[in-house]
Amino acid sequence: NRSLVWFRRDLRVFDNAALHHALKNSRMVFCVFVFDTDILQPLLDAGLKADRRVEFIHASIVELDAELRLLGGNLIVRHASSVADIPALAAELGVDAVYANRDYEPQAVIRDSAVAATLAKNGCALHTYKDHVIFETDEVLSLAAKPFSVFTPYKNSWMKRLAAADGEFFLKPYPISSYASRLALAPTANANAIPSLADLGFEPTNLSELKIPTGISGANQLLDDFMLRIGDYRDTRNFPAVKGPSYLSVHLRFGTISIRTLARNAYQTMRQGVEGGGAAVWLSELVWRDFYFMILHYHPHVAQRAFKQDYDAIQWETGASAEAAFQAWCDGRTGYPLVDAAMLQINQTGYMHNRLRMVVASFLIKDLGIDWRWGEAYFAKHLNDFDLSANNGGWQWAASSGCDAQPYFRIFNPITQSEKFDSEGKFIRRYLPQLGKLSNKAIHAPWLIDTAILQAAGITLGGNYPRPLVQHDVARAQTLARYAVVKKVT
Ligand code: FAD
């Protein structure tokens, strides 16, 4: 029997559930990746020809093909609508089954059921596997067998389940080496050369200039580096100027490393107990990832509306002034240095530090009074690691409308956040060199400084750096009034 492995968000050979099962169950295994026009065409139609994610995927595909070739197979790479193309390819290759790892995003679920239905008409099966998460949506439930909506009990239950199997069962990698000889080279007609970025209609971005390592090797390089400092994670993770986090999110997004590998590394380090508590905190972040996948699955309405439905009654700012304020936020021109530096980070690199994601989200929603969905959409467009569930979870957390979100009356002060988490202004200076000459104390709120000092530092407010768009205290009062509609339900 023959099968086809359809790679999507799992661009690796090592520890890949679908690849493992296909090899185990078949005599001959082909592999395919589709640059899906249903995803890419809308980007091109919107004029978004430079997209770091497309370039990241492209580079990772080249490496995946090379890895498969080392094992005796190769990667068929198509540029088509996968809904039609996967069944067509399956028929051409004469396979009995297509193997893939489950993708939980609503559009992907629709796509996969359409593919399964067409395949079934030709007598071909679509087998899907758990691979993107440690625990699937129905594997961690409350004692009453209900899904959790609060993180801490979910996490406790998650950890308990892992520990009961000593981590071994859920974290162990899927081997392929003993079956790798079943990988087959695609027949010549299907062994298309990998299309170039230009063939796909895209332009190069600054990805290589940013030195964001791509592919399986890039993920391993980042993990090796992070494992040297995982113990410090608890103490360093909140400071954007410090190399605290792992920077692995884009790799988790595209599956160039498995979640099991990451969780296993964290779990084993945690159990050795010799580090500074960082591994346990990092593992907890990986649990948040599973948690938000689960929330999106059970509450798909969150993709459009508030998790807590009463929050849909909030009246956000609208009209030309809201649009201008939103544009200033997007461009990093709010006059609040930490917010602006953070927005320049996402615009220039496609990454934003977690602390800053919380700060800028809070600023947009609770200082500018703008609908969280505007910010969510902006992040979706620009983040290399964009993931519907985590992004939506993060935005609804900041808007207080999410499950287990921060209470609506907790409003980040962008100045104190800056003083606390970038006390020497190192991060701000990196992105806003025009503020470089200000003292560590003054850099967080330039408009509060004496004009003479500003002049001496070469800064003109409203010139080379904007005046603050809003006064935080005033905005805070307006937000409390805006949220009054939901007071009864929190
Ligand atoms: P690390 O600190 O090294 O964390 C390791 C991994 O844990 C991350 O790669 C990620 O997979 C997971 N993780 C960490 N924090 C969270 C979290 N709060 N929720 C879910 N998973 C988490 N993360 C995304 O992967 N995609 C997004 O689109 C996304 N949008 C966000 C939007 C907002 C408003 C906020 C507040 C957070 C968002 N996050 C998102 C979560 C978090 O900011 C990023 O995962 C993290 O900054 C990625 O950097 P890292 O890999 O260096 O993180």
Automatic annotation (TrEMBL):
Domain Photolyase/cryptochrome alpha/beta: 1-134
Lyase is among the record's keywords: yes
Pfam family membership, one: DNA_photolyase
UniProt-listed InterPro entries: Crypto/Photolyase_FAD-like_sf (IPR036134), Crypto/Photolyase_N_sf (IPR036155), Cryptochr/Photolyase_FAD-bd (IPR005101), Cryptochrome/DNA_photolyase_1 (IPR002081), DNA_photolyase_1_CS_C (IPR018394), DNA_photolyase_N (IPR006050), Rossmann-like_a/b/a_fold (IPR014729)
Residues involved in FAD binding: Y233, W282, E285, L286, V287, W288, R289, D290, F291, Y292, D385, F386, D387
GO molecular function: deoxyribodipyrimidine photo-lyase activity; DNA binding; FAD binding
Top-level taxon in the UniProt lineage: Bacteria
Keywords for this protein: Chromophore, FAD, Flavoprotein, Lyase
Annotated protein name in UniProt: Deoxyribodipyrimidine photo-lyase
Species: Glaciimonas immobilis
